[in-house]
């Protein structure tokens, strides 16, 4: 299936930062097995496949190197910037498996940026066994957790397990049991773990293990950022409307900045820049 493949990195203004994503654009989506093959060959945590090649309404599918993922935030940001650079600013509509989302694209101060509004988020309590098993796989202890942000399963397109820690030192030490964590995440339908430390009310630091996609850690995770924003609002942990910033990827040497706008109701808006990868 003919198409054009772009390689961009999202939530950064430098090719050395952010989270790399493939962006494939064509007149029709390839068969699933071909999308999986391309994503594995690209080797980034996600590749977005977009069709048709032109127009405001697109069908979008996301693939990690190992499996299809129903929604990916950083590949959405990268896709929006590619569309902006090739077709111009505007609001594109992405038809993804969880629903339809708008992606606003603009150029500001000489840099392209994109913002997606997630599907309506939701959350639920994290079962005690899931939390205990996750902590064991992470080699963490329950005493490391920040009780002011209770553990939860959070959704804004895909599900994440949210674990907030009390100190930056705990977040800095991430050396988990890959096979064990992958197995429990697959059993619970989780896409990533959203591990966070709150430095202040409007600034969070995050790390996201992604073994279900064949990736040890994501340097920027827009879907998890949206899920966190929705959880903070709907659990009454932040007064909305509000805006928070998430810093991610610094421990990996790929610093990322995700801006999360939390309205009083509805989907969460996640925005950032994206630039071509140096290849």
3D structure, described in words:
With 279 residues, this protein is an alpha+beta fold. The protein has two domains: 4-119, Roll (Diaminopimelate Epimerase, Chain A, domain 1), CATH 3.10.310; 122-275, Diaminopimelate Epimerase, Chain A, domain 1. It is 24% helix and 40% strand. The chain contains six helices and 17 strands. It has an eight-stranded mixed beta barrel with strand order 1-2-3-4-6-7-8-17. A hairpin with a 2-residue loop joins strand 7 and strand 8. Helix 2 (73-87) packs across helix 6 (222-234) and helix 3 packs antiparallel against helix 5 (178-188). The longest helix is centred in the N-terminal third of the chain and has 15 residues, at 73-87. It is globular and about 50 Å long. The chain starts with a strand and ends with a strand.
